[in-house]
Amino acid sequence: MPFISPLRPRDMTEAHRAATPLELLYDLVSVIAIAAAAAGLHHAIAEAHYLDGIIKFLAVFFGIWWAWMNYTWFASAYDNDDAAFRLLTMAIMGGALVMASGVAPFFTHLDFRLIVAGFVIMRLAMVVLWLRAAAQDGTRRRTALSYAIGITIAQVCWTGLLLAQGWLGALFFPLYGLCAVIELMVPVLAERQGTTPWHRHHMIERYGLLNIIVLGETLLAGSMALGRASGPAMDWHLVGIAAAALVIVFALWWLYFAREDHLEEHKLSRALSWGYGHLLVYVAGAAVGAGFAALVDISAHQAHAPLIAGLYGVAVPVALYFVGLWFVRDRIALGHTHHWVLPAFAALILAVPPFAGIYGIAALTILAVHIRARIACPAL
Fold first, then answer.
1. What is the DSSP letter of 285?
2. CA 354, CA 336: separation in Å to the nearest integer?
């Protein structure tokens, strides 16, 4: 394997394009960071620190998702698997681990240092990758340079936020949001200089794999419930929670991996809405696991929050997951007459916890799977 080979654009119509072992290793690293963020939200809900926990969870999750997403789209367009590409990818993975180690300090006392350090490591490695692309892809040189410059400016903003954190007070999170908006604008502006040659089927697979990762947080919570239930006397309520977790995660998986295509064209506006819109799907998927973990603590009388908080800790993210799927796929794939199914069930799921608890939420997810499948494929 050469240390450096030309980083030329990949073929957008390449047959049988699939995730590489390096990308799967990157996903494994992402599991650690996502689990750390979900654990922070879990403990915040259990201790009744709802707003504080949600804000911090969103702040952390944005950094994890954004770094993953940027690398994934770049790799789809330019991955040449030379040694330099592998080493830069591993540097990005190292940054993700640094971020993961900073999640707990950020949740407990707003210590932002490790999160910024890890994020900047990841993003500066991306700058090097984009400069390599600019040197080899003359057709999209302006696009690649726009990415490199935009990412660098964003890292200056993050570093400035870290240095000024001590005296910002209540302005910290609004300025955090401003830095996030700057990051979000980089691809929007850069891709207008010339669209990068990402592979449609490859991107659909990569996004699906990350969704499986975030849904794994709910499986972990279900396993935790079973572990708590199997004491000297079996706690059948915790067994029921574990069963509900299994049902809900299977339903969420089923709804995501439906027959309809997720990304039906290469149009930039569609790619941006699909790519960015998945943030809601991923945040909700990870938060379902955190909600279940908090519900287990509450049911085992090891938390300060009331039971209804644990129920809504599950119901709200399940509803948001439905809305996210509607935004990224169903509003287009199912047409104007039938795309209302998931938003309607999202509203029902938000209404049911006081009356039917976790079993009502699970039953509605099953019903949503059934009705959506019948509408999408009437012959079934």
1. H
2. 32
Give the mean pLDDT per block of 10 residues along the chain (380 residues). 76 85 92 90 91 93 93 93 93 94 91 92 95 91 96 95 86 93 95 91 93 84 65 72 91 91 81 93 94 89 90 96 94 78 95 94 96 72
Structure tokens at 238: 């915790």
H helical segments located in 137-235? 141-168, 172-191, 200-229
Helices (H), 230-267: 236-256
Q: Which residue has the tokens 């080493």?
A: 87
Distance CA 323, CA 35 (A): 23
Strand, coil or helix: 112? coil
Q: Are 372 and 343 in contact (CB under 8 A)?
A: no
Q: What is the DSSP letter of 197?
A: -
Q: What is the C-alpha separation between 363 and 69, in angstroms, rounded?
A: 33
* Residue among 263, 326, 323 nearest 287 (CA): 323
C-alpha torsion sign, points 297, 300, 303, 308: positive
Count how many residues are written for the chain. 380
Q: How many whole angstroms separate alpha carbon 62 and alpha carbon 173?
A: 13
Return the closest-CA partner of residue 292 out of 251, 245, 359, 248.
Answer: 245
Q: Tokens 């995730």 belong to which residue?
A: 19
**Separation CA 215–CA 347 (nearest Å):** 21
Token look-up 């850069």 returns 190
* Geometric angle at alpha carbon 276, from 195 and 331, rounded to 5°: 100
Strand, coil or helix: 96: helix
Assess contact for 354 and 237: CB atoms under 8 A.
Answer: no
- Asked if 367 contacts 345 with a C-beta cutoff of 8 angstroms, the reply is yes
Domains along the chain with CATH numbers? 21-191 (no CATH), 200-376 (1.20.1410)
Sole residue written with tokens 């993961």: 100
Residue whose pair of structure tokens reads 């400016």 in the numeric block: 153
- Given a contact cutoff of 8 angstroms between Cβ atoms, the answer to whether 285 and 214 are in contact is yes
Burial bucket for residue 339 (CB in 10 Å: 0-12, 13-18, 19+): middle
Residues 228-253: b if buried by 16+ CB within 10 A, e if exposed: bbeeeeebeebebbbbbbbbbbbbbb
Q: How many other β-carbons are positioned within 10 Å of the β-carbon of residue 196?
A: 25
CA 151 to CA 138: how far, in whole Å?
A: 20
